[in-house]
Amino acid sequence: MIEKQFVGMTAKLEALTDAPAPRKGPPCSVGAFLAETDQETAATLRRILDTPTVPATAIATVLSQHGHAITAYTVARHRRRSEANGCRCTPGRPVVQTQDATVTRSSAHPSPINAPEEGLLMGLYWQDGTRITKAEVPAAALDDPPVRITQDIYISEPYGRGDGQPEGSKRFLLYPAGTIALRSVIDRLFAPATVTSISPANGPAAGDTTITIKGDNLDGISAITFGSTAGTELQIRSAGELTVKTPSGTAGPVTVTIVDDSGSVAKPNGFTYV
Description:
Blueprint: H1 9-18, H2 29-36, H3 39-49, H4 56-65, H5 72-79, E1 95-97, E2 102-104, E3 146-148, E4 153-157, E5 170-175, E6 180-182, H6 183-188, E7 194-199, E8 202-203, E9 210-216, E10 221-226, E11 229-230, E12 232-238, E13 241-245, E14 252-260, E15 265-273
């Protein structure tokens, strides 16, 4: 009986442990976004994905606001890339090839910024092996810097018509304290106000006329002026409607200015004293 020879099998089996994890079908929606977006955005997103304090829900919200239907579960799974139960659309960590050795960043050492062992030196290098000086580090200030939320922030919505609160009574935790978000994302939460109608459009010069202003995003209004004089008894009924009483004025048209936390909106000849 001829004995089977398993020549070289051990080496081949050992090689399997270093082989990259195979993909499970097409890239996930996060991987697809990274592949199609510009390099700067992709680099920022990868950095945010590797920041544990940024919740997956916040990342999913930002990406979804830009037309990508991405869930927090998909973001969390993508963060576990290279793990057995994680996303494999981007298997493995980046590998840096040098003339002397191949260094792989594993999940145990995800960041190159690790303190060197005592007595060892470390440096930064260009791809051709030339050392980078401190003054040559290729870095630029971000136009859209991330900010850290220092207190819990809630978002609200109404229960339905007749809720009674302009901003709504149901509140949900949007950003827990410690969350990191892009400045532009925070700014987009404060949509500028718009005015579609002012009624009535005229009233006596003695003032004290209650007018109704309708539009969008009016729940952030803090004051309304007629010419240079502020109106009184401002009441925000909803995000689309408010009322205010006119001050006394001089006969003729005046500019109505609504003071909004996203910027004031002026309506020339918005009201006429008669």
